[in-house]
Amino acid sequence: MRAHPGPRLRYGARRTGRAVTGRPPWMLLVPALAGTAFLVLPLAGLLVRAPWSTLPERLAQPQVLQALRLSLVTATVATGVCLLLGVPLAWLLARTSFPGRRLLRALITVPLVLPPVVGGVALLLVLGRRGLLGSWLESAFGVTLPFTTAGVVVAEAFVAMPFLVISVEGALRAADPRFEEAAATLGASRWTVFRRVTLPLIAPGVAAGAVLCWARALGEFGATITFAGNFPGTTQTMPLAVYLALETDPEAAVVLSLVLLAVSVLILAGLRERWVSRV
Amino acid sequence: MRRPGPDSPQHGGLRARLAVERPGFRLDVALEVAAGEVVALLGPNGAGKTTALRALAGLTPLTGGSIELDGRALHTLPAERRPVGVVFQDYLLFPHLSALDNVAFGPRCQGASRAEARRAAAELLERVGLAGHASARPRRLSGGQAQRVALARALAVRPRLLLLDEPLAALDAHTRLEIRSGLRRHLADFDGATVLVTHDPLDAMVLADRLIVIEDGAVVQQGTAAEVARRPRTRYVARLVGLNLYRGAADGPEVTVEGVVFSVTERLHGPVFVAFSPAAVALYRSRPDGSPRNLWRARIDGIERYGDNIRVHLDGPITASADVTPAAVADLGLSAGQEIWAAVKATETHAYPA
In A, which residues are within 8 Å of B86 by CB distance? Predict the structure, then answer.
């Protein structure tokens, strides 16, 4: 595509009179608008094609509520698990140095680029009934994870944790470590420093990471269906229900999608107001 | 952990040799500070003052030497177990805690209950005159208030060694004056050893009992402010105290510096320092009559305002500063690049062994 010489010249001429501000260049504006349309139009399509007349009764169906509840609960528990394990992991990556730290960080980011289905297969190989850890878990504790609600949480946490770790590690690197030194001179142990100084300082980063993590867990599909299956009531989360409905009853799929969209937007918007914008 | 209270033995104070080696930098200084004494580490940027302070606090590991406080080894303890209070250059008050909770942080870490810690913190805030700001977050405090909260926070751990890193550097000139005198009072009340780092000679002279000048990681001079100001031993110290300083060879009443002969009142032999004030230098357009001593030909390198006077920077066999009145500058028609004669009275030069 060729550049538009006209606007560029006019822009150049304006620059002599007015500093750097002015109309955004077409070369940026046009793709930006196209990008906006690309992201927003499918959502608009969902709203347009929704069966509004039958919506109330479809929403009241027990399967919908069941899937929605399961999705919200598992995404929230998975986020909790990610916080519990991911924040200390991020701290380790940001505040200590040990041989293999770079390798560890690289490994942790693998689930970000791994197709979730592959993640699900990997989970099955390790935590499945005949898996490396799974067989031991079953014989020692009688615990089986695949095809259970706990398995859904495991699959979601596996896929979502890198988002949290990366965002918290970024917050830790941005936080001034001298506050931690000041706390040490006041007699604080490293744990107290972490709890009373580091954590409050990076709270916005942790919250942003948790939101990202929760959103990723809520939308998880591939790893969940592979590792936990698709059983209504125990492992069938909203994305799974949408996919299944698409094959049998497309209108139901639209309704479920609409619900998922509404919940995501509502919660993200609510949290964004409070936390994310402060980062 | 227990820290010694004010009733613990007073003998000893701080006795340390700090060696810190890093690629391209080496610090090796010995310090002795009695309990109740305030010592200022003075030096140009990059001299190693802050590194020395961090080493005392335990934030930078020593590569050699030792630290002893009140007769006990300190260098073997981690930072959080040293009975040391630190006031950092930009205070580093915890932004998420109120002034009161900032001060109460130390006592809490030492195992005091929340109520006890807050009571102690409130007392300290009152002592520094900030009882009314106890609930304020640090970003609502002015620079001077933040400095006092930082001091209260450092004192709250009942330290035996108080460290202050450029405690007044972040303040504007007006606040500085007021905070400096307040700080002086608080330091006088403190019964442990105090080490403060500054590059401002005025802060050092007002706040400290004794100065230790550090350059390039080593102690170049120490003594009371008066001693240091009277007999500077490096260019840096001379510039701080506003003197021209030269190293020369003495032979009785005469000292030769780069071919310029100075008559001095002292009788010395061998290597000596000669110092004189810029105000003692007189400038002439043509060679004045009389003795050729204390007289040299100079080229004007630059002219700038200096208080009510004009400071003339001279180049030539020796570089020097001369303070003259604006009227003299006009009369002599001085300008940069001009060649002139400079002279200084024998009674105003001061020589001492190098």
Answer: 182, 185
**Stretch 47-76 of chain B: residues touching chain A, C-beta under 8 Å:** 57-59
- Per-residue model confidence (pLDDT) at position A3: 39
DSSP codes, A123-174: HHHHHSTTSTTHHHHHHHH----TTSHHHHHHHHHHHHHHHHHHHHHHHHHH
User: What's the gap in Å between the CA of B90 and the closest CA on chain A?
Assistant: 10
Query: Structural domain tally of chain A?
Result: 1
In a domain, A104, yes or no: yes
Q: Decide: B79 and A184 in contact? Cβ < 8 Å.
A: yes
CA distance to partner chain B, nearest, from residue A181 (Å): 7
Given an 8 Å threshold on Cβ–Cβ distance, is B109 in contact with A192? yes
Give the structural domain span for A234: 52-168+201-278
Arithmetic mean of pLDDT, B85-90: 94
Q: Quote the pLDDT of residue A274.
A: 61
**pTM summary value:** 0.80
Residue of B nearest to A204 (CA): B96
CB A200 within 8 A of CB A175: no
Question: What whole-number distance in Å separates Cα of residue A196 and Cα of residue A207?
Answer: 17
* CATH assignment of the domain containing A224: 1.10.3720.10
Residues of chain A found within 8 Å of residue B84, distances taken between Cβ atoms: 185
Closest CA to B317 of B348, B287, B347, B295: B295
Domains of chain B: 13-238 (3.40.50.300), 242-353 (2.40.50.100)
Domain assignment of residue A6, yes or no: no
CA distances in angstroms from B56 to A258, B62, B150, B153, B170, listed in the order given:
63, 9, 18, 18, 22
Residue A157 counted as domain residue: yes
In a domain, A191, yes or no: no
Closest partner CB to A184 (pick from B1, B3, B79) = B79
Q: pLDDT digits over B290-324, tens only? A: 777 889 999 999 999 888 889 999 998 899 999 99
**Residue ranges for chain A with pLDDT beneath 50:** 1-17, 277-279
- ipTM, two decimals: 0.81
